[in-house]
Amino acid sequence: xxxxxxxxxxxxxxxxxxxxxxxxxxxxxxxxxxxxxxxxxxxxxxxxxxxxxxxxxxxxxxxxxxxxxxxxxxxxxxxxxxxxxxxxxxxxxxxxxxxxxxxxxxxxxxxxxxxxxxxxxxxxxxxxxxxxxxxxxxxxx
Length: 141
Known about the structure:
Elements: E1 6-19, E2 32-36, E3 42-48, E4 51-61, E5 65-72, H1 81-95, E6 99-105, H2 109-117, E7 120-134
Parallel strand pairs: 5-6
Antiparallel strand pairs: 1-6, 1-7, 2-3, 3-4, 4-5
């Protein structure tokens, strides 16, 4: 019904990864701190000199699932800290009975590799982000 009435641009297709609790590989890193975010969800960080160098947290949470994110400052990459904070967050969510999910955009190999090393797998589902402009329904002449 809306076929020609929408103009789509900036389309991004993301793979939805989830973790198999039996394949999850926890990690111990004494630099990682588990904290509560302002909304009460878990957040794991690596800090040095008063700066957060790596963090993983929750974008949204339902009773059974939580979408997670990870960010590592460019100068702190290639040290394993991104993987360590995701491992910490995954463990906290699984202990709470929540299944984490993680979105990976095509072409982001470092992100995919990080998550797969911890036991996450591609669920086969996809999430699409796009900008859409409604042009109105065409009326027959």
